[in-house]
């Protein structure tokens, strides 16, 4: 685990750190080819410079965010924002369903909207895959 991500996880409460550590492990195992780093203050994984998934600490939960998640057609993921992102929020580690998460990560690899160039396109998203 990169030091900057370990520091992010370590800064959380014990229960939130457990959630972050497990999310990191599952994401990293299933998107091994992805670059990961702290981006906009939280851990994010990228494929070819395009953000795929990340997690962040919110006031009452840890949010797992898929940038193209609205296109996954997954009931458990909730729409987030006005683009194509969808999220899942966790308040305890037992809520993480590893099989769901692995399926969502595979969809994240297969279904991508071009967030990398969204500024250049003045807020217009184009589907890559």
From TrEMBL:
It holds the Pfam family DUF1801. Residues 17-107 form the YdhG-like domain. Gene3D superfamilies: 3.90.1150.200. This is DUF1801 domain-containing protein. It comes from Flavobacterium artemisiae.
């Amino acid at each position: 685990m990169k030091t900057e991500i370990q520091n992010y996880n370590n800064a959380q409460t014990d229960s939130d750190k457990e959630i972050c550590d497990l999310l990191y492990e599952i994401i990293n195992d299933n998107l091994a080819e992805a670059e990961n780093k702290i981006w906009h203050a939280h851990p994010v994984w990228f494929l070819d410079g395009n953000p795929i998934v990340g997690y962040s600490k919110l006031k009452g939960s840890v949010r797992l965010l898929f940038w193209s998640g609205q296109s996954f057609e997954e009931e458990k993921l909730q729409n987030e924002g006005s683009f194509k992102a969808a999220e899942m929020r966790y308040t305890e580690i037992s809520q993480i369903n590893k099989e769901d998460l692995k399926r969502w990560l595979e969809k994240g690899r297969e279904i991508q909207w071009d967030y990398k160039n969204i500024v250049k396109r003045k807020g217009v998203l184009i589907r890559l895959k």
